[in-house]
Amino acid sequence: MRLILLILIFASGAAAAFGQETLPSTTPATDLRSRLQPPVKPLETDLNGLWVGELLQNEGGIADKFEFSMQLHQNGIFMKGTAYVRFGDIWAEMRLSGYQLQNGSWKLTETEILRAKKPADLSWCIKKYELRVTYTNDGISLHGPWWGNSDFGPCIPGSVRLKMKKKSA
Length: 169
Description:
Layout: H1 2-17, H2 29-36, E1 49-57, E2 65-75, E3 78-87, E4 90-100, E5 106-117, E6 126-136, E7 139-150, E8 153-154, E9 158-164
Antiparallel strand pairs: 1-2, 1-9, 2-3, 3-4, 4-5, 5-6, 6-7, 7-8, 7-9
């Protein structure tokens, strides 16, 4: 018995002497897993640039399809930029900002109308978006739902589909 005790004392002393860390026997399994698994990193895609496409509005809005673009400036998991929406002679440019969610999608919110042209009886919808990045044979796209409010109350929501405009050489 003394021999076994002597071997255990020697083994723990040798591990400490050679810089080997021994985990305490009371370490919870979740703590051990967090030590072994790297943290989840957000999708590292460069979304800087001009995105063009369309904004769709569900039935009951002033139109079912609008021309739409976003000029985005990404800084890590944060985003800022402008959104531009147009239907015929009416249009608006809005400032937006947001951040990347843990699931990789982007939560963007329009914060201010910068410029606009509209009839007096129309109120622009200040929108929020949750956009996902998708990779296709044609390149990268951003798509997802939008919802918001105007001076008249909640807007009829819809969705957005955008592709990055190719940079000219």
